[in-house]
């Protein structure tokens, strides 16, 4: 797919330097893919630690102790 992007010569030089790729098209392509990867990582980090989980261990332990006749 072909896309036209307007960048200043300074921006393009910085992209080539950061990607360490001499070809303008390849450098911009690599930068765009890296941008997408970083956005996906940020999305994953934003939901990290927000998983709903109920720890059933206390309930299971109480049921188990009740079956053995062990005083709780």
Question: How would you classify the helix and strand content by structural class?
Answer: mainly alpha
Number-wise, the strands total 0
The average pLDDT score comes to 86
Q: Can you give the helix content as a percent range?
A: 55-70%
Distance between the termini: 68 Å
The residue ranges in which pLDDT falls below 50 over 5 or more consecutive positions are none
Strand content: under 5%
Shape: rod-shaped
Assembly type: single chain
Task: Outline the fold blueprint.
Elements: H1 9-19, H2 24-47, H3 57-68
Helix pairs in contact: 1-2
Overview of this protein structure:
With 72 residues, the chain is mainly α. The protein has a domain at 1-47. The protein contains three helices and no strands. Helix 1 (9-19) packs across helix 2 (24-47). The mean pLDDT is 86.
């Amino acid at each position: 797919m072909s896309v036209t992007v307007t960048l200043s010569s300074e921006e393009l030089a910085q992209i080539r330097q950061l990607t360490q790729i001499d070809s303008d098209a390849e450098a911009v392509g690599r930068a765009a893919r890296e941008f997408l990867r970083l956005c996906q990582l940020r999305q994953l980090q934003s939901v990290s630690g927000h998983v709903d989980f109920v720890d059933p261990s206390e309930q299971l332990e109480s049921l188990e102790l009740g079956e053995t006749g062990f005083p709780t």
